[in-house]
Amino acid sequence: MVNPLWRRIEGINQVVLPSLIFNTKSARVVVKIQTGKGFLIQYIMTLQVQYTAQGFCFLPDRTIDQKFLKTAQEGLLAVRDETFDTGVPPSSHPGYDPGKLCKINNAHLANHALYAMLVESTLGERIAEVTGSKMVQVWASQLLIKPPGSEKAGRVGWHQDRQYWQYWQRDEGLFTAWIALDDVKEESGPMQLVPGSHCWGFLGQGDFFNSDQETLRASIEIPAGERWEEVSALLPAGGVSLHHSLTFHGSQENISNRARCSLAVHLRDEQAEPVLGNKNYYVSHLGDMQYNPVIFQG
User: Fold this and answer.
1) CB contact burial 66-80 (16+ within 10 A = b; e otherwise)
2) How many structural domains are present in the chain?
3) DSSP output for 72-123
4) Based on the domain organization, do 170 and 39 belong to the same domain?
5) Which of 44, 136, 199, 292 is close enough to 296 for a disulfide, judged by CB 3.0 to 4.6 Å?
6) H or E element, residue 105
């Protein structure tokens, strides 16, 4: 069995050497495919096709305007240092420790600039163009700060987001926009995604909090005929990746000399409904636009 991407290209029976060239400026991906017969085929893949086939895509650079980026960068430092200009604290803040990954939940509640970046930019519109959603709503956010030199304590273990989202009825209509608030290079410990893994279904395997990536990877049961490959989300500051709730992803340590900062924004569209009667915090404020703003309405 081959990756769903290749199934979309008629006339190719065996794929030997695929390579993807991501162009976030033009919102397309160039796929170069060498077939078993030695023919080289170049295929222009739109973001919609990439998201459907690979389970993730990188949104165009213009998604987060520089004016939002600059104030959001200032906002992340304020929230890190427990200064909340909205008067509302994030739902959880462990305190900043430069020796390990810092995860601050619902930082958009605590800072006007972070909130404005979500609701006033073109983020919702760009996401809807990719997913075909009629409505896009923020239901949670995580400010992630990976300090330099944090070693294994800065890693994020391989996982599917759906593992932690059991208060939703189904997998579809749930996705994450990961916004880079600094330039993300290979040495920064970028998010890494496994193409096509969203097609494996919900496996319930992996662990966000486990830093032993090799052991964790070996414990994940890959369906027969599928393969494990990793693509790094190398993004400029303000760049955005979008991934499906079932796409496996994780990250390695930051070996650069700068912190890697990002805002992971968890979203739903009109397909996603909470489990009836579930009182989890994350589905208890869906009618409150300050907590859970709708950032696109078609």
Assistant:
1) eebbebbbebbebbb
2) 2
3) HHHHHHHHHTT--TTS---SB-----TTS-EEEETGGGT-HHHHHHHHHSSH
4) no
5) 136
6) strand 102-105
206 and 68: one domain?
Answer: yes
Residue 118, token pair as written in the block:
């979500």
Expressed as residue numbers, the domain containing 31 is 1-54
pLDDT for 113: 98
Structure tokens at 65: 């305007």
Encode burial over 9-34: b for 16+ CB neighbours within 10 A, e otherwise: beebeebeebeeebebeebbbebebb
Neighbours of 37 (CB within 10 A): 9
Whether the pLDDT of residue 287 is over 90: the answer is yes
| Residues 141, 108: Cα–Cα separation, whole Å | 7
Q: Write the DSSP symbol of residue 9.
A: S
Q: How far apart are CA 158 and CA 146, in angstroms?
A: 16
**pLDDT tens column, 221-251:** 999 999 999 999 999 999 999 999 999 999 9
Q: Is the pLDDT of residue 10 over 50?
A: no
Q: How confident is the model at residue 12 (pLDDT cuts 50, 70, 90)?
A: very low
User: Residue 176 is part of a domain; what is its CATH number?
Assistant: 2.60.120.620
Cα–Cα distance for residue pair 191/123, rounded to 1 Å: 19
* pTM for this entry: 0.85
Looking at the DSSP bridge assignments, the partners of residue 143 are 104, 263
